[in-house]
Amino acid sequence: MSVSIPKPARARVPRRDRGQGRGRSQQARETLAAWLFLAPSTLHFLIFTVGALIASLVISTWQWDLVTPHRFIGIDNYTALFQDSQFYTSLGVTLTYCLITIPSGIVLGMLIALALNQKLRGMTTLRFIYFIPYVAPVAAVALLWRWMYNSQYGILNWFLSFLVPGDVNIDWLGEPRLAIVAAAIMDVWKNLGWSVTLFTAGLLAIPAHYYEAAELDGASAWQRFRYVTFPLLTPTTFFLVVMGVIGSFQVFDSIYLMLGDTPNAQATTYNFYIWQQGFRYSNMGYASALSWVLFAIIGVLTFLQFKFLNKRVNYELG
Length: 318
Hints:
Blueprint: H1 18-59, E1 62-63, E2 71-72, H2 76-81, H3 85-116, H4 123-135, H5 138-149, H6 155-160, H7 176-204, H8 208-216, H9 221-232, H10 234-249, H11 253-259, H12 270-280, H13 284-309
Antiparallel strand pairs: 1-2
Main location: membrane
Protein name: Sugar ABC transporter permease
InterPro entries: ABC_transporter_permease, MetI-like, MetI-like_sf
């Protein structure tokens, strides 16, 4: 009698899910398409940002005038920098510019935003009007203010003649100590719309029931501003301070357009001094060293602001 032994069952190998395979292929094609779209911007960033940074760091160790062959001098540009009196003067001028533009822009921007936050007709139009100088070309704004500052027929001296007895003939752009103040006032006026817009957005984000609760507690208008409005605007204020410091140390175009390519030493900002060394005196190695010191200064100032000022910022809003 024969006994049939059953054959062992074959392990069933699951078929490849064709739909899943098509999904992976579609995902791969989309990923490739995304990288192709990103490639131009990525190459631009690598070449003109990362590459330029590396090149400037290398050039800062050279003595090079763009014409003759360069010569490696190591850190001599950096050691010479701290012995340059104009380096310290330009830093002082830039700090003066910061102390004029940042507090003035923040205080005026907050006050105007509070005034424009009233529920009256025409407030939207006024907000638009205040924003126009910010988007206007800096060359046109500088030309307007140069005319206003003119010592012979400028409107500013004409207006002061009604307040001060005698002939007012102030040389706003020629006087060494007044030139940087005049340029700073122009920048405050031009960038005021940016501060007003940010403060207006901050005011609109404050819930109305905060003010209602303060009024029920008998808080005056000043107390509502001090204990409700201002604390909840500290994130906006902090942002404007940080960006204002960074922008002030990089100011160039308004100084160049207002004072020309050879301003006096008392009106030469740090960034303008970099331009002078690099493109007026063809000292590219020294200009690159100045640029890297500027990078370090801005980095340290930004770190200190985040370390000390950020503690006073109230991010609780809701």
